[in-house]
């Protein structure tokens, strides 16, 4: 008979075997067991266990030591020969536990039981289950173990306990125990003063005890607190409750709606809601409940049914429960499956410039995080998304994935929820007259989600609109005929600005006969319904608006007016008419507009865009429009390259970042046509020249396009090909991928030998100089870079000349003498100042700091370096700050601030890990780093050095650490840059 083990982690770690306590004395063994129990029944990788046991500084023989710890743990637990419950797996170890033998599992099950009971109106059952769940807690979870090694797990557990407390208090309030919970709520608010839900519950309890004055004072108190501590106003739930108190609302005796409960937001990139969220109460609760036990949840359904909106609302509500926030990746614009990993990495905010696969970067980033990732519009890449999600889920136990797709992913552990249409009014029985009076009597219209959505959107489109007894039946019938599809309802509602509900219904009756006799499986029926709704919206447009709609479908993820005029004008649409036609489509809710930036940004809903693409193919104009689109973005890239390193540099940075989806679409199209390979190469080269890939942390993508295009047959002029080869080699150099850089440089040399100018072609000379400096540390690089600078300037390539000047100044600072370094720096500072380019000026500051450090007065260096770092960070540059933090560490060491230097070395190490930079491949930087590390370690001693280094490496914001160093210097006697 096998032994029965019981484990408790909701307090100090406790173990029982067959009812008897098991004493585990060694701290590392207790920590190992806790790490396994934190992810019970899941494989915990060796790397993750090493991180739990030793953080970022594992011993040399860590793997062997870990294996030894596992054997010792089995002996302490008196495990049988097969090791159960601690089982070895090819990737690590797993502890097998029964559902009722781990207190965390029992807590989770009871909490879900209570939540479900409360949702179903069974408050007494809910209260009992939640009390049992909370009784399992014996104090701070795992309080006898090092908190810093469990800092991602313990806070998440505490958050779950607080959420269960909120539910239990909701149940008590529903049972009329308002007076009983008031003392407890006072204590909870004292312990968690910024948790708005407890304040809302206390206000409600006071109101139900007929203490409205105290409830209102409670609101004033929390409003002052939030303003003082966070600089924010109370959230939506508190504001609604306050209004109900002021109005003495009779429904104060009911349980309040928690759907919009405001909580402090974690890190994320969720967009703000622009319109009212209607209905979906059951689906919201179901998805929330699924995401507690399930690792992957996929929302499926027809296009336009509201999968994305539901996912974003659930994600926003759950955001406080995820310590590392919520991230959204919209995959709709993505056409190349090879770029899926980079698209997700970009959505996660990663800045990886390395040559390794993007998926590896994602897995490393997610491994120790508690994060919710929303993958939107997966259907066109379902197999690739499924493979990626499976790897992510296996690598990151704290990860939850919420996907939207018209097709399930089909991976193990996936929970699928089909998003239904909105509820519609009941159809009148054949024995009753279906007139307005009858609908007013049965009242189903007002209660249906579809009618509520229609009325909300109709009032927005036509402010004078009201739901009346005269139009109620027509609207109810309209919503039924549209099958409750939100997109169809919204497109119909906007027409009330020019038509009555009866007229809309008459027109719908004429156009959508199939709606009265649907056929085929549900999914086909819904797709047909949506097609007809969009057909109808299309028919309401003028002929020119229809033509523009189909042409706008070639854009990905939005466009501006200039692009619309360039791509869509001609053959039936005059350029000067595009603006008015675009305004017409905006008014008809076909096109959305965002005017928050310097340029108005237009976009199509994905379903509407796909419809436009179908119409464009029917018209036979798809290829012609894609040619225009690729040419538009070729010209934009060329213009950006020509104007780079000028006064509009920062504006170009923002614009290129915004237009990346369109550049990707253009590049993808160019790879499919031999006559456009040269255009694609021109786009890729100019995006590299403008350092777009650097700024946006997409170096790997830039290299991907260059390699893909250069591998295709092309008639591109040799100088363009040479530029492409040089940019490919330059990216590989910056990634620290020296073997590839060597190979790419050899290609450059072969091509250069065939050019009229030979090896003197500016891009080839530049990459020769960069390679000589960064890989070999060769002083001859200075002359090569100076020559490249002169040749770029002679060719009128200002931005390229600036890069050559910058590298020349760096090379002289690292490899030259004081006089030559001073001359190169002076030339660079003058050039940067004259350009008016903010990015160039930041690097001039950085080079000034480097010069002072190596050839001037070291005490003057930190101020320049900090100034450069702060301005680069403000620009959104993800590349420069990596080097700013590193060189600032050198300066701190040179000026005797050794502890701060050690912290900065640790912070720079983390920044390099985040961005994939390999110092070892960049010789001058690596040598300076090694020298600094040796100097600081010798000054502090190994123990103090490692402690300070670890402090820097563990900080989440290395840039802020660098900028906030206490020993600021003041720039004296230098010209402002």
Strand order of the largest sheet: 8-9-10-7-11
The percentage of residues in β strands lies in: 5-15%
The helix content, as a percent range, equals 55-70%
- Rg computed from alpha carbons, rounded to a whole number of angstroms: 32 Å
Anisotropy-based shape: globular
Weakly predicted, low-confidence segments: 255-266, 429-443, 510-529, 967-977
**Which structural category do the helix and sheet elements fall into?**
mainly alpha
Number of helices: 45
Strand elements, count:
13
How would you portray this structure in words?
The protein has about 1000 residues and is mainly α. A hairpin with a 2-residue loop joins β5 and β6 (about 90-95). The model is unreliable at about 255-265, about 430-445, about 510-530 and about 965-975 (pLDDT under 50).
Briefly summarize what is shown.
With 977 residues, the chain is mostly helical. 48% of the residues are buried.
Name the features:
single chain; disordered C terminus; 5-stranded parallel sheet; globular; 977 residues; 6% strand; mainly alpha; 13 strands
């Amino acid at each position: 008979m096998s032994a029965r083990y019981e484990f408790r982690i909701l307090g100090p770690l406790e173990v029982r075997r067959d009812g008897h306590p098991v004493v585990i004395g060694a701290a590392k063994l207790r920590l190992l067991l806790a790490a396994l129990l934190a992810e019970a029944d899941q494989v915990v990788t060796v790397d993750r266990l090493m991180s739990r046991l030793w953080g970022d500084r594992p011993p040399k023989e860590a793997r062997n030591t870990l294996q030894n710890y596992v054997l010792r743990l089995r002996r302490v637990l008196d495990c049988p020969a097969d090791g159960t419950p601690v089982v070895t797996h090819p990737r690590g170890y797993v502890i097998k536990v029964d559902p009722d033998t781990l207190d965390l599992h029992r807590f989770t099950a009871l909490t879900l039981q209570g939540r479900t009971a409360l949702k179903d109106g069974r408050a007494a059952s809910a209260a009992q289950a939640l009390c049992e769940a909370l009784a399992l807690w014996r104090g701070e979870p795992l309080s006898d173990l090092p908190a810093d090694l469990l800092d991602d797990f313990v806070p998440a557990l505490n958050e779950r306990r607080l959420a269960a407390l909120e539910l239990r208090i909701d149940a008590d309030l529903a049972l009329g125990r308002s007076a009983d919970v008031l003392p407890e709520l006072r204590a909870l608010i004292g312990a968690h003063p910024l948790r708005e839900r407890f304040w809302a519950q206390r206000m409600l309890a006071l109101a139900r005890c007929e203490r409205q004055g105290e409830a209102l004072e409670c609101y004033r108190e929390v409003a002052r607190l939030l303003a003082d501590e966070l600089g924010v106003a109370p959230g939506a739930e508190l504001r609604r409750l306050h209004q109900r108190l002021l109005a003495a609302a009779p429904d104060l005796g009911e349980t309040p709606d928690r759907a919009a409960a405001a909580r402090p937001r974690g890190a994320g990139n969720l967009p703000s809601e622009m319109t009212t969220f209607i209905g979906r109460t059951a689906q919201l609760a179901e998805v929330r409940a699924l995401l507690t036990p399930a690792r992957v949840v996929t929302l499926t359904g027809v296009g336009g049914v509201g999968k994305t909106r539901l996912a974003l609302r659930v994600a926003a509500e759950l955001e406080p429960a995820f310590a590392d926030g919520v991230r959204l990746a919209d995959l709709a614009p993505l056409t190349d499956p090879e770029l899926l990993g980079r698209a997700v990495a970009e959505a996660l905010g990663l800045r990886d410039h390395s040559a390794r696969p993007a998926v590896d970067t994602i897995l490393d980033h997610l491994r120790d995080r508690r994060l919710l990732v929303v993958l939107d519009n997966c259907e066109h890449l379902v197999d690739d998304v499924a493979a990626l999600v499976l790897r992510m889920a296996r690598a990151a136990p704290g990860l939850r994935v919420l996907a939207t797709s018209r097709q399930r992913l089909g991976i193990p552990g996936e929970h699928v929820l089909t998003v239904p249409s909105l509820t519609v009014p009941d159809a009148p029985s054949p024995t009753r007259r279906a007139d307005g009076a009858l609908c007013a009597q049965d009242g189903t219209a007002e209660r249906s989600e579809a009618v509520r959505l229609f009325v909300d959107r109709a009032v927005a489109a036509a402010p004078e609109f009201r739901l009346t007894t005269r139009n109620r039946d027509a609207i109810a019938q309209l919503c039924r005929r549209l099958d409750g599809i939100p997109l169809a309802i919204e497109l119909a509602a906007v027409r009330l600005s020019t038509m009555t509900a009866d007229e809309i219904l008459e027109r719908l009756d004429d156009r959508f006969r199939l709606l009265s006799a649907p056929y085929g499986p549900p999914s086909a029926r819904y797709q047909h319904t949506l097609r007809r709704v969009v057909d109808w919206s299309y028919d309401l447009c003028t002929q020119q608006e229809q033509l523009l709609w189909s042409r706008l479908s070639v854009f990905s993820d939005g466009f501006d007016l200039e692009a619309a005029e360039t791509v869509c004008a001609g053959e039936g649409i005059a350029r000067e008419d595009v603006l008015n036609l675009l305004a017409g489509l905006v008014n008809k809710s076909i096109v959305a507009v965002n005017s928050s930036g310097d340029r108005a940004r237009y976009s199509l809903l994905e379903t509407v865009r796909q419809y436009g693409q179908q119409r464009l193919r029917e018209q036979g104009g798809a290829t012609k429009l894609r040619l225009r689109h690729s040419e538009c973005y070729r010209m934009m890239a060329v213009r950006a390259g020509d104007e780079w390193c000028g006064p509009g540099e920062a504006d170009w940075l923002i614009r290129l970042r915004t237009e990346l989806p369109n550049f990707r679409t253009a590049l993808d199209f160019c790879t499919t046509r031999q006559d456009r390979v040269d255009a694609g190469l021109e786009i890729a080269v100019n995006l590299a020249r403008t350092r777009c890939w650097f700024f946006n942390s997409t170096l790997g993508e830039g290299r991907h396009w260059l390699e893909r295009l250069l591998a295709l047959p092309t008639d591109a002029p040799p100088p363009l090909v040479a530029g492409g080869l040089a940019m490919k080699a330059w990216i590989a150099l910056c990634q620290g991928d020296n073997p590839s850089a060597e190979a790419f440089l050899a290609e450059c040399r072969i091509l250069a030998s065939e050019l009229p100018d030979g090896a003197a072609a500016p891009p080839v000379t530049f990459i020769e100089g960069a390679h000589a400096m960064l890989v070999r540390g060769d002083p001859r690089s200075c002359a090569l870079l100076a020559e490249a600078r002169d040749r770029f300037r002679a060719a009128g390539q200002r931005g390229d000349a600036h890069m050559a000047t910058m590298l020349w100044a760096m090379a002289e600072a690292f490899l030259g003498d004081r006089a030559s370094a001073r001359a190169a720096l002076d030339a660079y500072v003058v050039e940067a100042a004259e350009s008016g380019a903010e990015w160039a000026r930041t690097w001039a500051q950085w080079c000034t700091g480097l010069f002072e450090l190596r050839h001037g007065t070291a005490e003057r260096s930190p101020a320049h370096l900090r100034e450069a770092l702060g301005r680069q960070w403000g620009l959104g540059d993800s590349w420069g700050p990596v080097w700013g933090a590193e060189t600032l560490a050198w300066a701190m060491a040179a000026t005797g601030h050794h502890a701060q230097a050690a912290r900065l070395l640790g912070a720079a190490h983390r920044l390099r890990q985040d961005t994939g930079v390999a110092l070892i491949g960049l010789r001058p930087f690596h040598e300076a780093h090694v020298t600094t590390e040796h100097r600081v370690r010798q000054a502090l001693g190994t123990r103090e050095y490692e402690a300070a280094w670890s402090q820097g490496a563990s900080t989440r914001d290395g840039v802020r650490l660098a900028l906030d160093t206490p020993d600021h210097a003041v720039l004296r006697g230098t010209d402002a840059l």
